[in-house]
Amino acid sequence: MGSTARAMKPDSLALLRAGTVIPAQPLALTADRRFDERRQRALTRYYHAAGAGGVAVGVHTTQFEIRDVGLYRPVLEMAAEVSRETTGGNAPAGSSVTGPRPLVQIAGASGPTAQAVAEAQVAAELGYDAVLLAPRVAGLSGTREEVERYLLDRARAVGEVLPVIGFYLQEAIGGPRLSVDFWREFAAIEAVVAVKAAPFNRYRTIDVLRGVAESGRADQISLYTGNDDAIIADLVSEVDVPVAGSTSPYTARFVGGLLGQWAVWTRGAVETLRLAQAARGVTSDGTLTVPDDAALRLLVARQTGLTDANAAVFDSTNDFAGVIAGVHEVLRRQGLLEGIWCLDPAETLSPGQADELTRVTAAYPWLGASDDAFVAEHLDAWLA
After folding, report:
1. Which residues, in sequence order, are CB contacts of 79 under 8 Å at separation 6+?
2. CA distance 205 to 103
3. Is the separation of the CB atoms in 178 and 207 below 8 Å?
4. Cα–Cα distance, 113 to 221 (Å, whole number)
5. What is the DSSP letter of 34?
6. Of 24, 197, 252, 312, which residue is 20 to 30 A from 223 by alpha carbon distance?
7. Is the pLDDT of residue 5 over 60?
8. Is the pLDDT of residue 240 over 80?
9. Please, what is the average pLDDT of the chain?
10. Closest CA to 256 of 87, 54, 96, 84
11. Using an 8 Å Cβ cutoff, are 131 and 117 in contact?
């Protein structure tokens, strides 16, 4: 294939490669399920002020249904406007970073090839850096080889518009099973700059690592965890993957996260990534330093608690039926959202999920206490 129509900005690409926190942005709605522009802006300001390195918009957490109600472009446009405030030096209230700073702006794209390309074109017009390409295509059928060939051709087409981030979506919410061969060929596409591994399955996560390692472009692919049930395990792991024909293995590292879990308690997510980087012996810009054993011990101690909390937020007990409503409920309790309304009226909290959220919040005070105080201090300014 040819080169992409537009390469990533050097500072955004450097940030993506060094590793950062990228929340999957939810959709703010009013009680009558109309777009709540004021609170949507507040969400983006919160993420930037909390120290996130960007946002992913138009993804599963934003609700795929935004495409059906004409909200895809308005939601992306608003996030881009708020992000420009930060990149231009007008940081949101409470931000620990003053002056302009790079951000990675990622747009979700899905559907058949024509739709995905059109959505990438919208994102390019709005100044987005890359496209997170969801492997969901309604009605797509055939053998695994035929499905994978279609998805590879679609990725090449989208890559003619913007750089592409691959996405291994868990089967529970519509993702297909993808082979090592798929990931090898996917990572070999010139336009691919990163892969988000989110199969919620260790075996399939290894398939991604093997495919990237064998692609010939491993040094150009940034690995991001989307395994919300294994965030810390991914961030502190370094996996040596043997490569045929090479005398030395490829050492796979997840440099950051693009996560629905990080749409809540984002300030804590930034701290988690900082600790993971310290534990691995790298600085925020990717420079090697001395590994911090104390940081590793703290993360290991928190690992189970974070997964337990994610089970409550994502409603794993009910096969993730309340995943988006769970994210909304945490943000509602903080005041960032007015309610938990989704575009689909049937999409809401599962029985007992609210109690589980109360339980994990009390059980793990390190999880959200600092975020709660941070939001309370700056919410009025973000809503202004």
Report:
1. 25, 40, 44, 55, 57, 105
2. 27
3. yes
4. 23
5. -
6. 312
7. no
8. yes
9. 94
10. 54
11. no
d(CA 229, CA 102): 28
Query: Which of left, alpha, beta for 130 (phi over 0: left; psi -120 to 50: alpha)?
Result: beta
CB–CB of 61/22 below 8 Å? no
pLDDT in tens, 245-255: 888 899 999 99
d(Cα 76, Cα 59) in Å, to the nearest integer? 10
Q: For the residues of 111-157, what is the DSSP string, one character each? A: SSHHHHHHHHHHHHHTT--EEEE----TT--S-HHHHHHHHHHHHHH
Over residues 199-210, the pLDDT tens digits come to 999 999 999 999
* Residue 2 pLDDT class (50, 70, 90 cuts): very low
Q: What are the backbone angles phi and psi of residue 203, rounded to the nearest 5°?
A: -60, -45
In degrees to the nearest 10, what's the CA dihedral of 131, 133, 139, 140? Answer: 120
Torsion region of 330: left, alpha or beta (phi above 0 gives left; psi -120 to 50 gives alpha): alpha
Q: Which helix (H) or strand (E) holds 363?
A: helix 353-363
pTM recorded for the entire structure:
0.95
Arithmetic mean of pLDDT, 55-71: 97
User: Dihedral sign, CA of 331, 333, 339, 341?
Assistant: positive
What Å distances lie between residue 209 and 144, 153, 212, 224, 277, CA to CA? 20, 21, 5, 11, 19
